[in-house]
Design goal:
Order of helices and strands: HEHEHEHEHEEEEEHEE
CATH topology: Glutaconate Coenzyme A-transferase
Shape: globular
Number of domains: 1
Distance between the termini: 56 Å
Radius of gyration: 19 Å
Largest sheet: 8 strands, mixed
Helix content: 10-25%
Structural class: alpha/beta
CATH architecture: 3-Layer(aba) Sandwich
CATH superfamily: Glutaconate Coenzyme A-transferase
């Protein structure tokens, strides 16, 4: 990797520098748009005592859920437990510290972190345990909670396309948390389906500019569905 070229050739290179005790912010929603290979690399590295920030923690045996198996995650910041029995078990037993955050607030905490905003006021969670220990304020007759922003040592992201300069395009619902996560890491690593040459991406279609991205790796994805819902056709 040299100059503006952000492309790396191996997962070892992609996640180089990740150490015990760091904070990792991960894109995705459920299993949609998760950086599968980068998560698998963290599993392979055996990095421990991590604080992981993501909308949820994958499922048993896939996505971020694999990091729970060897107790690599010390603290999980998420908006819900989801389809993950091991996450639930570790939460209820107290062996995993969990900070449950309203989904919109979590998204804004990450976006604010990427924008350099240290904290913001939101009405969400006022008068509930979400507000415990936090500053509150009445503004124009309504009560608000002060929420600190979130940044990470690493941000791991999944995109559809990138050029070698790290400009990113996301596709459909896989966009979800990924664009804001990409802005909030000291080191942002992106898995993509396709890498193109600079100039091949239509500038107006770029969702995240390469200034936020340090490393890009091309990968293939399983694209597993969290819960498949089907309906029998007529006459079946």
């Amino acid at each position: 990797m040299a100059g503006f070229n952000k492309v790396v050739q191996s997962y070892d290179e992609a996640m180089a520098g990740l150490q015990d005790g760091m904070t990792v912010i991960a894109g995705g929603f459920g299993l949609c748009g998760i950086p599968e290979g980068l998560i698998a690399q963290i599993k392979k590295m055996g990095t421990r005592d991590l604080t992981v920030v993501s909308n949820n923690c994958g499922v048993d045996g896939f996505g971020l859920g694999v990091l729970l198996e060897d107790r690599q995650i010390k603290k999980m910041v998420a908006s819900y437990v989801g389809e993950n029995a091991l996450f639930e078990k570790q939460l209820l037993s107290g062996e995993l510290e969990v900070e449950l955050t309203p989904q919109g607030t979590l998204a804004e905490k990450i976006r604010a972190g990427g924008a350099g905003i240290p904290a913001f006021f939101t009405a969400t969670g006022y008068g509930t345990p979400v507000a415990d220990g936090k500053e509150t304020r009445e503004i124009n007759g309504r009560n608000y909670v002060l929420e600190p922003s979130i940044t990470g040592d690493f941000a791991i992201v999944r995109a559809w396309k990138a050029d070698r300069y790290g400009n990113l395009v996301f596709r459909h619902t896989a966009m979800n948390f990924n664009p804001m996560v990409a802005t909030a890491g000291k080191i942002t690593v992106v898995e993509v389906e396709e890498i193109v040459e600079p100039g091949e991406l239509e500038p107006s279609q770029i969702h995240t500019p390469g200034i936020y991205v340090q490393r890009v790796i091309q990968a293939s994805f399983e694209k597993r569905i969290e819960r498949r819902m089907v309906r029998q056709g007529e006459g079946a």
